[in-house]
Amino acid sequence: VHVFQTLPDNAVSNYAASLKDKGSLVPALYKVIRENYSDLLEPVCHQLFEFYRSGEPQLQRFTLQFLPELLWSLLSVSAARDPHTSGCIEALLLGIYNLEIVDKDGQSKILSFTVPSLSKPSVYHEPSTFGSMALTEGALSNHGLSRVVYSGPHLQRETFTAQNRFEVLTFLLLCYNAVLSYMTSTSLQSLCQLSSRVCICGYPRQQMRRYKGINARLTVTSEFLVQLITGIHYALCNGEVEVGSKALDDVLYRAQLELFPEALLVGNAIKSSLHGAALKSNNKEGARSIQVEITPTSSRISRNAVTSLRRHLETATHDQLDILSTRSHPKNHFKPKLNSLDIS
After folding, report:
1. Residue 222: strand, helix, or coil
2. What are the tens digits of pLDDT across the range 140-191?
3. Taking Cα atoms as reference points, which of 257, 256, 235, 259 lies closest to residue 247?
4. Closest to 247 measured CA to CA, from 218, 209, 290, 273
5. CA 22/CA 181 separation, integer angstroms
6. Strand runs labelled E in 95-194
7. Structure pTM?
8. How many Cα atoms are found within 13 Å in the side-chain-facing hemisphere of 39?
9. What's the pLDDT score for residue 138?
10. How far is residue 329's CA from residue 323's CA, in Å, rounded to a whole number?
11. 3-state secondary structure 143-169
C-alpha cells in the first residue's frame, strides 16, 4: 500500500479498483487491527487515513469496511483502561469524523431528512390502508406542512472524552450505513459481532453466549444502538442470518435493560417484519437489498374487485334462473307444511 504515496492523481482510481483483487490484504489488515499491541497498527491506521483523505470513493469505502473492527478495538481498550494502545485508532476515527462533518469548502455540514408523509405512497405503505387517516395527512400535505429534520452542525473533535465518545461513534456508524451495499460479508459479520459484544459484556447473557472477552460493562446510547440495528437489518437480508439474528436479539436485550424506547421501537419493528420471511443464509452474492413486504397496489385491488363482482353476478344469474325454472314448474315448488298448528 505504500505505492499509493507516489501515484499521480489520474492513477488513483485504477489503484483503488485493484485493491479488491489482493485477496490476502484484507484478512491481514483485520489481523493487525485485532492485535492491539502490533507494531504494524500505527502505520496501517496512517495508511487507512490517507486512503480516506484522498477523496476517492472506492478508497473511502475500503477504509470504512474496517470501521466495526476499529470501533470494537477502541471500546474494548477504553474499557480495559489502557488508552496508550489505542492512540492511532483514535486518531484515525477522529480524522474520518472531522473530514465528514465539513463540505469541500471546509464549511460545517447540516444534514436534512424529510419525514415521509402517510398521504403519499412509498415502498413501505399505501395511503389507502390507513383509511380516513390518509385524508387528514393529505389535507396537511396540500398546505405544504412537510416535516424536515436537521442534523448538525457538528463540532470538530481533537480527542475522545466520556462526553463525546458515542456522539462521534454514532456519526461514524451513520457514514458506514450510508454505504452498506458496498460492504463485504466479512465487514457485515464484524458489525454483528461488534453489536453483540458491546451489548452483552458485563451482563448475564455474556455467560450464555460463552464470550470470554472483557467483562466490563460498556456504556451505550440509544442513538448508537439504532445505528447498529440499521446495519444488522441489512446484514440479515443479505446472507448473515445466523449472526444477524443473534446480534438483533442482543441489542434488544440491552435496549430493554436500558429502557431505550427508540432502539426498542426500531428493533422490534424489524424483528416483526422479518417474522416468517424467507431469509436465505446463502444469499451473499448478487444484488444487495432489504426485504420489504409491499401492500397490493391500486391496480391489483381493482382487478380483484372486478373478479369478485363477476363471480357475484354469475351467482346471482344462476339464482335467478333457478327461481324462473321453479315458477315454470309449480309441481316442483316447495310449500311449507303446517304441522300441529290449526288456523281454522
Report:
1. helix
2. 555 555 677 777 788 898 888 888 999 999 999 999 999 999 999 999 999 9
3. 235
4. 209
5. 20
6. 111-114, 148-151
7. 0.75
8. 0
9. 55
10. 10
11. CCCCCEEEECCCCCCCCCCCCCHHHHH
Instruction: Tell me how far apart the alpha carbons of residues 174 and 26 are, in angstroms, rounded to a whole number.
Output: 22
Residue 177: all three cell numbers together? 450505513
Least confident span in 25-34, 81-90, 107-116: 81-90
* Contact yes or no for 118/134 (Cβ under 8 A): yes
pLDDT of residue 305 exceeding 80, the answer is no
C-alpha grid cell, residue 301: 385491488
Provide the 8-state DSSP code for 108.
B
Dump pLDDT digits (tens) for 241-271. Answer: 999 999 999 999 999 999 999 999 999 999 9
Indicate if the alpha-carbon torsion angle 321, 324, 328, 333 is positive or negative: positive
Listed by start position, the domains of the chain span 1-105+160-178, 111-151, 179-295, 302-327
Rounded distance between C-alpha atoms, residue 115 and residue 122, angstroms: 12
Residue for grid cell 466520556: 162
